[in-house]
Design a protein that fits this description.
By secondary structure, the protein is mainly alpha-helical. The protein folds into two domains: 2-97; 100-158. Helix content is 78%, strand content 0%.
């Protein structure tokens, strides 16, 4: 019950604090505070008011922001888990990988780094083969075109 109330309040606060009106309000408070400086002779109490106010707001906003980040992160993980589950070639073992101990995560990361290196090496080899095949095909087409026109092949003069 308290958790639900906090979640609703946090979502509301998160939406409100991200609006232009929140910035304008905060700016207006700082402006009014600054303009009242001469009235209060820039006293220690005058300075303490803004320091205390900003500290309290910052302290409370930390919890609101953390709640929002936790909720967003959880939603992203659930969406990714659904994509993994629905994709036939994906590894279902990757679902909830964020719950693994640090050592296990490091092990998974190393295995993916090895896969990336292997894939890069294979990509390079495939690129070379494709390039050679294209060169051969272009040479063959040029030879055919020259032959059709009855022109000598410049490669034969070498």
């Amino acid at each position: 019950m308290v958790s639900d109330a906090f979640s609703r309040f946090a979502r509301w606060m998160e939406r409100q604090s991200g609006r232009p009106g929140a910035f304008v309000t905060a700016f207006a408070v700082v402006l009014v505070w600054g303009l009242t400086g001469p009235l209060f002779h820039f006293s220690d109490t005058w300075q303490l008011v803004i320091n205390t106010g900003t500290t309290i707001v910052t302290f409370l906003m930390v919890f609101i922001i953390q709640n929002a980040q936790n909720r967003d992160t959880q939603a992203i993980h659930l969406k990714l888990d659904e994509l993994i589950r629905a994709t036939h070639s994906a590894r279902n073992g990757m679902i909830d990988v964020e719950e693994m101990p640090e050592a296990e995560l490091a092990k998974v990361k190393r295995s993916f780094e090895k896969l990336a290196q292997t894939a890069e090496c294979l990509d390079h080899r495939i690129d070379e083969k494709v390039e050679r095949a294209v060169e051969r095909e272009v040479e063959r087409e040029v030879e055919e075109e020259l032959e059709e026109r009855g022109l000598p092949d410049p490669a034969d003069k070498r």
